[in-house]
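Dear colleagues,

As part of the handover before I leave the project, I'm documenting each prediction I ran so the next person doesn't have to rerun anything. This entry is a single chain, and its sequence is reproduced below.
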Amino acid sequence: MPTLSSWLPFEWIAATRFLREGRAQTLLIIVAVGVGVAVIVFMSALLSGLQGNLVKRTLSSQAHVVLLPTEEIARPQQDDAGAVIQRQAQRLRSIDQWQALRARLESLPEISAVSPVASGPAFAVRNEANKAITLYGIVPEHYIQVIDLHEKIVAGELRVNAGEAVIGIELARELGAGLGDKLRVNASNGATDTLTIVGLFDLGNKVANGRNVYVGLRSAQNLLDLIGGVSNIDLALRDMYAAETLAQRLAGETGLVADSWIKTNSQFFTALNSQRMSSNLIRFFIALSVAFGIASVLVVSVVQRAKEIGILRAMGTSQGQILRIFLLQGGIVGLLGSLLGSALALLCLTLWRLLATNPDGTPLFPIELPPALVLITAAGASLVGVIAALLPARRAARLDPVVAIRG
């Protein structure tokens, strides 16, 4: 009755036998590969979680791209005495035909959500306290698709009907206000309105929590003298890292000012890129050290098994078969090391979640181990093992049978 080994290729049988005979060397190199893979997987998952958390916090109160009307250019003018007067334009400007523009933007495949906003400066007054604020007129069902404001509500609800407002926890503290209290809003053009506080939010940003006040779009249009108009259009993209490219394209096509989150947070984005480049460099050198480790072990294996290789060649084994035997060894070592490394990385991530916590016991930031990362790393380690085995495999394949047996 045929056994399993009778169905296996000759190269596989020889490769696994060589690995079993040199158990100590095989175990050491598998552990070395596993440690390298564990570092790569753990570091990749950790940096991905850290960067995702930083980006999420940065964009908690900011759209991926914001379209604004072009600024009015101050032009020098002369009075009756001939003196030059520089007059600055202070009025808020509306985006022309913004409804048609919104429909056009919604048809673009790169854009996932479009939200018209009427925003401008104002003062919030309660009793003797007053505070400079930024008033945001929004349509909630559109706005929450760009900014997750509904998830930041800590008291009350996100509701901006006529006469209602949602304010930040910092502004509520400074004004001594809470849910159900009245708040008077005075715009710079003299318009005023009294609003009821129906919700409190925490965007994780003290400045935004102390300045932002959200009301209905129509209420903001009336207060800011933007009847029927909007001051900006906020966009959410399917790929946030393509924001600057799309912003430049939209600016050229529409004639509007297009500010991307990348441009607005240029130093932060540069730091992210630097961190990503440095982590890629570290991963490259770890993979390089793993490759040299596998290659060195297999070179020693070729020297130790020179006579066996010579006997195999004398028995009719082709150079191609010898080559494949050692390439298989490299691939097997890389695969087993990647599996060990993935298990070690999972253990490290579990310990990280248990030890790296906030004072209230919650994790510092969410960190996951995507299956795709494990699969890619396993395939990469196996490929590195095969490439590392190429030089010793070629050396083994070129051994002269007579010289190898006599040696």
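Residues 112 and 238 are 6 Å apart (CA to CA). DSSP finds 15 helices and twelve strands in the chain.

All the best with the project,
I.
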